[in-house]
């Protein structure tokens, strides 16, 4: 059974004149119909957010924290229902969908905690020079203005949470646009926020079509844009509004480096299992999934067959089955693109060790070696269940290979040597280095973002709150310090 989902306009449910269908990428079944806001309703949401910005900034911390705590609790209560919804609209295996709900629970809990301690003010003595005698500076943070949050399809609940929760915690109104392929999970957050006592206009969730976004992006009442998605779209947004504050999380082609000291059978089994799992989780549709595996020559011949075996052990199929590791991609077109990139690499001389087959929107977990450096799959983000394996000689060559990319989101380094860990932290041109594991680890409270063309700014609850606000200094005069 399906239903029509209304959108959330200035904190209340509303219906538009048109609807669009949300279908399952696994079997094409209708998951739901979503009401589309009219141009007048979009304008109403923007006007309400703009009008409430001062009131919301002054809302007591306990009110904002209570709303966030409420969402966190309600997500727990509705975990299975929401996980089933994520799996249905996204094609994500149910075990990963349940994990995503758990992460969103944490995001709202972290945001509630940060709301209670954010913006307490920092005092600074100014009498360190004679001209500052009797003066004290107090620094607090205030909103830059209404946030336009644009979320992707691959984590349709948690990445909406990463836009909305920090904004509410900081007292910043937000208009959220969920991905057209996966709007239902974002609208669920609206269901839960509507049960809170936040002022009208503090948040709206508008599932507008992508071709309606330029007007919102250009709207001067929305001075902050937080975008997660493709490099092409992200930089097009930034280039179109050079005077706005943009946070862009644009993905990458994550490298997992396996160095020579990681050489026991247990080490190599662990590395192979982690690489296989996190090259293929979410169908490879994660910004920090493993795409490039860079292996020291001393362990290459022992690790490669382990990787292939671990990849072939991934269970593919129906995402509603708890045993499934790898479901479909978000659409057949996405799978066709991955198929064409793999074929291009093979035609150019790459060796296909396993996978390389498409069935509708599903693409088999794939391992390639001997991949030429100039083919698309070496240079771009594949966003599919494909990994390449490259042999190198030594640490320096491994780090150079990892850096040989226009992207720099995160990297994983398998080593036991703490000195190597610190050298990796210095050498690798990425936003995060994970030692002893794949690059696919993200704790939702830590700063998250990239270098080079992986974007600008940082997500993570506290860091997004900083990003949505600016420092304002108050100087007090005539004090007896």
Would you kindly provide a written description of the structure presented here, covering whatever features stand out?
There is one protein chain. The chain has 481 residues and is α/β, with parallel strands linked by helices. The strands form seven sheets. A seven-stranded mixed β-sheet has the order 15-18-19-14-13-21-22, sandwiched between helices. A six-stranded mixed β-sheet has the order 10-9-8-11-12-24, with helices on both faces. Strands 1-5-4 form a three-stranded mixed β-sheet. It has 16 helices and 25 strands. The longest helix has 24 residues, at 94-117. It starts with a strand and ends in a 5-residue tail after the last strand. Helix 3 packs antiparallel against helix 5, helix 3 (61-77) packs antiparallel against helix 6 (158-170) and helix 6 packs across helix 16.
Question: How do the helices and strands line up, and which of them pair or pack?
Answer:
Elements: E1 4-5, E2 7-9, E3 12-14, E4 18-23, E5 30-36, H1 39-51, H2 53-57, H3 61-77, H4 79-90, H5 94-117, E6 122-125, E7 136-143, E8 147-150, H6 158-170, E9 174-177, H7 183-193, E10 203-205, H8 213-218, E11 224-228, H9 231-240, E12 245-249, E13 255-258, H10 265-280, E14 292-296, H11 297-312, H12 332-347, E15 351-354, E16 358-359, E17 362-363, E18 366-369, H13 376-379, E19 386-392, H14 395-403, E20 407-408, E21 410-414, H15 418-427, E22 432-435, E23 451-452, E24 455-456, H16 461-467, E25 469-476
Parallel strand pairs: 1-5, 8-9, 8-11, 9-10, 11-12, 13-14, 13-21, 14-19, 18-19, 21-22
Antiparallel strand pairs: 2-3, 4-5, 6-7, 7-25, 12-24, 15-18, 16-17, 20-23
Helix pairs in contact: 3-5, 3-6, 4-5, 4-7, 5-6, 6-16, 10-11
């Amino acid at each position: 059974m399906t239903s029509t989902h209304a959108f959330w306009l200035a904190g209340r449910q509303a219906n538009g004149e048109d609807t669009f269908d949300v279908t399952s990428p696994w079997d094409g079944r209708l998951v739901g119909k979503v009401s589309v806001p009219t141009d007048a309703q979009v304008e109403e949401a923007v006007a309400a957010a703009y009008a409430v910005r001062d009131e919301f900034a002054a809302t007591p911390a306990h009110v904002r924290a209570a709303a966030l705590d409420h969402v966190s609790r309600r997500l727990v209560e509705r975990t299975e229902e929401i996980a089933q919804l994520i799996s249905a609209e996204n094609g994500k295996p149910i075990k990963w969908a349940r994990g995503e709900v758990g992460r969103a629970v944490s995001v709202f809990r972290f945001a509630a905690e940060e709301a209670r301690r954010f913006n307490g003010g920092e005092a600074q003595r100014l009498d360190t020079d004679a001209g500052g005698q009797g003066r004290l500076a107090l620094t607090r943070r205030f909103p830059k203005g209404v946030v336009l949050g644009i979320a992707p399809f691959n984590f349709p609940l948690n990445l909406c949470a990463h836009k909305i929760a920090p904004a509410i915690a900081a007292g910043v109104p937000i208009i959220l646009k969920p991905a057209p392929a996966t709007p239902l999970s974002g609208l669920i957050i609206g269901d839960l926020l509507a049960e809170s006592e936040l002022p009208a206009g503090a948040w709206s969730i508008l599932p507008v079509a992508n071709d309606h976004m330029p007007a919102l992006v250009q709207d001067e009442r929305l001075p902050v844009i937080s975008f997660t998605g493709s490099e092409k779209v992200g930089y097009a947004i930034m280039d179109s509004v050079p005077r706005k504050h943009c946070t862009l999380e644009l993905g990458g082609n994550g490298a997992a480096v396996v160095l020579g000291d990681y050489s026991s059978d247990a080490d190599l089994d662990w590395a192979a299992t982690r690489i296989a799992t996190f090259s293929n989780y979410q169908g490879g549709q994660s910004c920090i999934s493993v795409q490039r595996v860079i292996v020291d020559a001393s362990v290459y011949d022992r690790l490669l067959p382990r990787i292939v075996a671990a990849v072939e052990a991934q269970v593919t199929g129906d995402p509603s089955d708890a045993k499934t590791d790898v479901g479909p991609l978000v659409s057949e077109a996405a799978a066709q693109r991955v198929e064409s990139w793999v074929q291009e690499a093979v035609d150019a001389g790459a060796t296909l060790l396993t996978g390389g087959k498409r069935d509708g929107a599903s693409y088999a977990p794939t391992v390639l070696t001997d991949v030429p450096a100039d083919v698309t799959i070496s240079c771009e983000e594949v966003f599919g269940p494909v990994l390449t394996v490259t042999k190198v000689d030594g640490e320096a060559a491994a780090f150079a290979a990892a850096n040989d990319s226009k992207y720099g989101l995160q990297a994983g380094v398998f080593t036991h040597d703490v000195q190597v860990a610190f050298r990796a932290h210095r050498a690798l041109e990425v936003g995060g280095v994970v030692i002893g594991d794949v690059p696919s680890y993200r704790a939702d409270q830590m700063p998250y973002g990239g270098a080079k063309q992986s974007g600008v700014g940082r997500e993570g609850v506290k860091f997004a709150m900083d990003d949505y606000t600016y420092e304002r200094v108050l100087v007090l005069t005539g004090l007896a310090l």
